Amino acid sequence: MNETEKKKISKFLSLILRHQPETINLHLDENGWADVVELMGKCAKKRIYFTLEELDEVVETNNKKRFAFNGEKTMIRASQGHSIDVDLSLAALQPPEFLYHGTAEANIPSILEKGIEKRSRQHVHLSSDKETATKVGMRHGKPVNLTVRTGAMFEEGMKFYLSENGVWLTDFVEVKYISK
Q1: 156-180: buried (b, 16+ CB within 10 Å) or exposed (e) per residue?
Q2: C-beta of residue 79 within 8 angstroms of C-beta of residue 164
Q3: CA pseudo-torsion sign 14, 17, 20, 21
């Protein structure tokens, strides 16, 4: 499978598993898992064809590890980034002292006024390194990295979760914890 085909399948899976399973009438359980056979059949009806081996290649080679299989590879889900209500069953963890949020320069005035909001997503996404945060910010315009004092947030009772693909998640970041 070439890179263009992998990217097409990955983008469609992101749409279906993170945001709009109803697009193909796909059932996700409360934890966001979809049956692989059902997914493949419903994708085929939309003329998006792939074998189990190709799906495995998309999951394994995705540089952001956006998707995960269960142990038997009979179920698949998005690792994080949902705008639909799913319970990823992640345990709350103590984060590092600092994490980073990549955004576009155009978003900075709003963030410095209101904080970092999850908006349509289930969580705010934070990166453990500046390079990843920069890549995230570049998707939306001229990138800016914000440093978040997550250690202080944790000490004050905020909860943090670490997704299967290494993205730190929380509900909201107040302005007082953010620096440029």
Answers
A1: eebebbbbebebbbbeebeeebbee
A2: yes
A3: positive
Domains detected in the chain: 3-78 (1.10.10.970), 99-179 (3.20.170.30)
18-26: list long-range contacts, CB under 8 Å, 24+ apart. 18/78, 18/81, 18/82, 18/83, 18/84, 19/82, 19/83, 19/84, 20/84, 21/84
Q: Where would I find the beta strands (DSSP E) of 8-90?
A: 34-35, 67-69, 75-78
Q: Contact, 148 vs 126, CB < 8 A?
A: yes
CB contact at 8 A, 94 and 161:
no
pTM assigned to the model: 0.79
Q: Indicate whether 164 pLDDT > 90.
A: no
Provide the pLDDT for residue 60.
Answer: 94
Q: Are 32 and 78 in contact (CB under 8 A)?
A: yes
Task: Describe the strand order of the beta sheet including 34-35 as a list of residue ranges.
Answer: 34-35, 75-78, 67-69
Contact in structure between 126 and 99 (CB atoms under 8 Å): yes
Q: Return the pLDDT at 105.
A: 96
Single-letter amino acid code for the residue at 6: K
- With tokens 């453990």, the residue in question is 128
Average pLDDT of every residue of the chain: 95
What is the Cα 67 distance to its own chain's centre?
Answer: 9
Place of tokens 């899976």: 13
